[in-house]
Amino acid sequence: MKQVEGLTHDFLAAKMVSLVTFAKDGSRRSRPMTNFNEDPYGRIWFPTYSTTEKVRDIEGDPHVIVSFPSSRNGKFWEIEGRASFEGEDGVSEKWQWWYLYWHPEAAREGWGPEGDASYVDHRKIIDVEPVSARLVDAPRAGD
């Protein structure tokens, strides 16, 4: 993906981003995701569960958009990409990091969601391979 001025700065400042997927009827579905990522030009990943609507959308259409505010007033970034899912090893590695980030007490108590097979079987990591990035106008009230 081509380097775009300001993208990395704004991406690192965005602790929350929107992951936009596309339903079978072509409609957009957007949901907030925590941004743990450090490079908008590399693979962007998000933890989720296999039973979510976003996973079903990606299975039907891997085209996604990661959107977040720009430091330029009235503008947002859109990173278009192709989504896929991590294999079992990647899920285990990234899930542990993500889980312990949100639940640091689990490290003291003994990290262990692996003990519940139903929990483990439903874990997914969405990988987004960025293709392009652009600035867009923020929606106006009433749009």
Strand content: 35-45%
CATH topology tier name of the domain at 7-87 and 124-137: Pnp Oxidase, Chain A
Q: Reading side by side through the largest sheet, how are the strands ordered?
A: 2-1-4-5-6-3
CATH class wording of the domain at 7-87 and 124-137: Mainly Beta
- The appropriate CATH architecture of the domain at 7-87 and 124-137 is Roll
Oligomer, anyone? single chain
Which spans have pLDDT < 50 for at least 5 consecutive residues? 115-119
- Structural class, from secondary structure content? alpha+beta
Q: Biggest β-sheet: count, sense, barrel?
A: 6 strands, antiparallel
CATH level-4 homologous superfamily of the domain at 7-87 and 124-137: Electron Transport, Fmn-binding Protein, Chain A
| Order of helix and strand elements from N to C terminus | HEEEHEEHHHE
Which percent bin holds the helix content? 25-40%
**Please, how many helices?**
5
Given the C-alpha coordinates, what overall shape results?
globular
Beta-strand segment tally: 6
- Based on CA atoms alone, the radius of gyration comes out at 16 Å
* End-to-end CA span: 30 Å
What does the average pLDDT come to?
86
